[in-house]
Structures are given as C-alpha cells and as structure tokens.
C-alpha cells in the first residue's frame, strides 16, 4: 500500500506545477502588455509587487500557487509517515480527498474566487489533513514492534 499512499502526493506535486505554469501563462502576457508603465523591473522585485498593478483575476493564480506551497508542506510528510508505517485504505481515501479538494480549491480560486465557498473547500481539505495527521500520530506513537 506504499505506492497507493504516495500517489496522492505525487498528483498534488504535479498539480502544483500545473498551477505554476497557469500562473506564468497568464502573468507574463499581462506584464508584457503593461510594458514599462508597470514599473516592476526594479532589483529585488517580487510577485507581490504585481498586486494592484495587473488585473486581480490574473493574480489569483499566483495566490493559489502560494497556497499550494503552504499547507501541503505538512501533507507531504504526513503521507510519507503513513506510507512508511503502513497505510490502510482509510488513509489512502483521506489523502485522495485532500488532493481532490485542493485541486477544486485551486480551480475555484483561480477562476471564481468567492471567498465563502473557497473557505468551505479549504476547511474540508483541512479536516481531511487533520484526520491524516491523527492517523500518522496513531501509527507512530502507538506503534509497538514487539507486540504481534
């Protein structure tokens, strides 16, 4: 079951890269269209410098990509812990639920971005992650290799 437990993490990695390219594919043309009037060519510039400079809908992809670099960083080690310790079917299901909800969250944030719905999607994904974290604690803290 190790591969089945790691598969959702691999899909989320790929999805994060999809969001990276979606962000670049929308931001770069907007930057090119804005030209020198954007004043973003200063040394040390960051993506946050584009806030209020290019259309908010274009920045939504960047916001989501940033989110994919935040909470999922605790999803990945949780999945690895469970894969090492021996994941059960419920763990795998929870991991897929988390990934599916993060993908839905990404699409929603990048396109519609109504915060009340986005928050509910985020909350559901977070609850799946909490359950996974509890399972990882149970699998490690209560693991007793001396007991058959």
TrEMBL record:
Keywords carried by this UniProt record: Membrane, Transmembrane, Transmembrane helix
Name of the featured protein: MAPEG family protein
Main location group: membrane
Gene Ontology cellular component annotations, sorted alphabetically: membrane
Transmembrane segments: 74-99, 119-142
Subcellular location, record wording: Membrane
Superkingdom field: Bacteria
Pfam families the record matches: MAPEG
Listed SUPFAM superfamilies: MAPEG domain-like (SSF161084)
Signal peptide: none
